[in-house]
């Protein structure tokens, strides 16, 4: 288990800290008109297209959601209505943290500065951050950096803003594809995977695994390590 004590702990926000309920939002919009099988496939495609959309040049996240919904609908022969995509997007600021987050962050916030690097917009994220229940040293969005994760640019921008390097931080995420693979490639040695069931484990990327944010204090040397089971 990692015992390195970083200068900063940096976080992915949506999915890792905030309960990023895109699947639920899609069900609330389309569930009454689709069969369970089609609904399940549309949610899966909606997720895949969101990743594909952020791999290109930066664009507002509202466009990422709009395009992803439209492409998922097309693939599943579902009528696309722009207002439906807007309904999903409008839910984002209302989402709160996973239940374990406020107490878990409180254990470390007084000891190590907390930073968020998020695929978000300034107009969205502060509402979510306010619900996390802990002070953050810095909030950095893709809108500010001009690039979405998994691009490296956002991480490099964060290093410059913090005046540190990859050797100085612990990066925390529930996603390999958006965060931890890039963190590995950039030489961030101290990585923590919050296993929220989004993706399967992949030990190649050399991380400490925790089941929730309650285990983070142990991962950065502030408390005895919790055994993950």
Global morphology: globular
| Structural class by helix and strand composition | alpha/beta
Biggest pleated-sheet summary: 6 strands, parallel
Instruction: Describe the strand arrangement of the main beta sheet, using strand numbers.
Output: 3-2-1-4-5-6
Note poorly predicted spans.
Answer: none
Strand content: 5-15%
Tally of separate helices = 10
Distance between the termini: 14 Å
- Share of helical residues: 40-55%
Question: Overall mean pLDDT score?
Answer: 95
Radius of gyration: 18 Å
Task: Count all strands and give the number.
Answer: 6
Order of helices and strands: EHHHHHEHEHHEHEEH
List the helices and strands and how they pair.
Blueprint lengths: L7 E4 L10 H9 L5 H19 L6 H15 L6 H10 L9 H9 L4 E5 L3 H9 L7 E4 H4 L7 H10 L6 E5 L2 H10 L4 E5 L13 E3 L5 H4 L10
Parallel strand pairs: 1-2, 1-4, 2-3, 4-5, 5-6
Descriptive notes:
The chain has helices spanning 22-30, 36-54, 61-75, 82-91, 101-109, 122-130, 142-145, 153-162, 176-185, 216-219, and strands spanning 8-11, 114-118, 138-141, 169-173, 190-194, 208-210. 43% of the residues lie in helices and 11% in strands. Strands 3-2-1-4-5-6 form a six-stranded parallel sheet. It has 229 residues and is of the alpha/beta class.
